[in-house]
């Protein structure tokens, strides 16, 4: 198809994209979206892949718990998508055809509202943009909307993550926990910790993502870009890979905060344990699904954060767990007796400090630090952590609401 003079194939894309951009990143209106020229000049340091990869088909749930989940060690699980319809169906052209007129969340307004775009316009944008840090689909309500919920039938929650204790809470009350994720080169997620002490799994169906994970005890100040490095994209993955990444790779980086890095490819499932800092950049078009969860292995971390950040939810959830999973009450009791500690040790989580028991703070504290999005719908992109009090994962980028 030939491109219009604005560079897009469809006549309305330019206006739809402009409207979304103005709402999601009004501060770029004057500065411009491609001013830094990253589409031409952005390069990543050469890959240093240091993560363990394990065949998910032959690994037992008990072994996963013992070797990775309990000790909180990141790992890539392979071979889990072989029976997923998504393996074939989550192809950009097929998705665009099937969900052409459906809106997907690709950003968040200053007021926390979702910025949405129809798939057909997003597809046009995806193929034809030169933005420094492009809009990124991070949609946490796809499984609840009539016309997009079939996406949730295209994949299966891997057995390792099936026992999500948040299932026992009323699904309308639980924090956002699953995201359909799609974006072009240079889109990604700023450094963050997922919200509420949850762990996450993130399965890539198409493309390649670069990940850097940094241990929970690393202080916030050293893992985040410095004030003078933030520029116009303070909360974007590209900025981190442009600034902090060099330090992480230098011999001066403290050994105790040694990162785990990798290039995740199609069919690979990343396990991000509770409390780990992580940052992601897409090397080209990627299509993924990610869930955050609470299991018997991280409940001791999730519980105190939920009490603090989502007090009403915690009461409701406690009742349900007492009825249906009484055996986990000992974990809750032990976690409640322990002094409230930050799972990040030195990297205190400012977001969780703003607690009050009213609904709004309840809502907003779901996330910890995901850098991603707040609000109720996005998971993971927060603009600035939890300090904004937003609970989702972080992104517009960070799963907005649910991440730390
Ligand atoms: O795929 C990505 O961009 C990473 C997402 C992420 O870390 C999150 O949603 O918390
Ligand atoms: Fe995350």
Automatic annotation (TrEMBL):
Keyword Nucleotide-binding (UniProt): no
SMART domains: JmjC (SM00558)
Biased composition (Basic and acidic residues): 381-395
Record-level GO cellular component terms: cytoplasm; nucleus
Localization, UniProt: Nucleus
Compositionally biased residues, Low complexity: 345-358
Taxonomic superkingdom: Eukaryota
InterPro entries: JmjC_dom, JMJD6_ArgDemeth/LysHydrox
GO biological process terms, semicolon-separated: phagocytosis
Requisite cofactors: Fe(2+)
SUPFAM superfamilies found in the cross-reference section: Clavaminate synthase-like
Residue stretches making up the JmjC domain: 146-310
Principal subcellular localisation of the protein: nucleus
GO MF annotation terms: histone H4R3 demethylase activity; metal ion binding; P-TEFb complex binding
Record region (Disordered): 342-404
Keywords per UniProt: Chromatin regulator, Dioxygenase, Iron, Metal-binding, Nucleus, Oxidoreductase, Transcription, Transcription regulation
Biased composition (Acidic residues): 359-368
Family: Belongs to the JMJD6 family.
Descriptive protein name: JmjC domain-containing protein
Species of origin: Caenorhabditis brenneri (Nematode worm)
High-level lineage: Eukaryota, Metazoa, Ecdysozoa, Nematoda, Chromadorea
């Amino acid at each position: 198809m030939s491109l219009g003079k604005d560079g897009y194939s469809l006549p309305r894309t330019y206006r739809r994209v402009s409207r979304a951009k103005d709402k999601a990143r009004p501060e770029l209106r004057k500065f411009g979206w491609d001013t830094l020229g990253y589409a031409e000049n952005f390069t990543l340091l050469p890959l240093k892949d240091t993560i363990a990869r394990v065949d998910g088909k032959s690994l037992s749930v008990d072994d996963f718990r013992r070797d990775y989940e309990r000790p909180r060690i990141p790992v890539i699980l392979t071979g889990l998508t072989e029976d997923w319809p998504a393996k074939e169906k989550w192809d950009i052209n097929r998705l665009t055809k099937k969900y052409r007129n459906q809106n997907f969340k690709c950003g968040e307004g200053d007021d926390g509202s979702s910025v949405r775009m129809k798939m057909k316009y997003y597809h046009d944008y995806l193929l034809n943009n030169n933005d420094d840090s492009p809009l990124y689909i991070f949609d946490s309500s796809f499984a609840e909307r009539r016309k997009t919920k079939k996406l949730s039938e295209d994949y299966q929650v891997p057995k390792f993550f099936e026992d999500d204790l948040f299932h026992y809470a009323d699904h309308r009350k639980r924090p956002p926990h699953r995201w359909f994720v799609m974006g072009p080169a240079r889109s990604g997620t700023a450094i963050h910790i997922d919200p509420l002490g949850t762990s996450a799994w993130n399965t890539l169906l198409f493309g390649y993502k670069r990940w850097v994970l940094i241990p929970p005890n690393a202080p916030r100040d050293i893992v985040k870009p410095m004030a003078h490095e933030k520029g116009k994209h303070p909360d974007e993955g590209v900025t981190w890979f442009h600034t902090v990444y060099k330090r992480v790779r230098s011999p001066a980086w403290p050994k105790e905060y040694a990162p785990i890095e990798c290039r995740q490819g199609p069919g690979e499932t990343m396990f991000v344990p509770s409390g780990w800092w992580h940052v992601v950049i897409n090397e080209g078009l990627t299509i993924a699904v990610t869930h955050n969860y609470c299991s018997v292995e991280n409940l001791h971390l999730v519980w105190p954060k939920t009490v603090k950040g989502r007090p009403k939810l915690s009461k409701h959830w406690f009742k349900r767990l007492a009825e249906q999973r009484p055996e986990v009450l000992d974990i809750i009791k032990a976690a409640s007796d322990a002094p409230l500690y930050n799972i990040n040790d030195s990297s205190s989580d400012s977001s969780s400090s703003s607690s009050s028991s009213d609904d709004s703070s309840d809502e907003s504290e779901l996330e910890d630090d995901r850098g991603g999005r707040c609000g109720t719908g996005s998971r993971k992109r927060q603009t600035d952590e939890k300090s904004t009090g937003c609970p989702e994962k972080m992104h517009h980028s960070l799963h907005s609401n649910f991440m730390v």
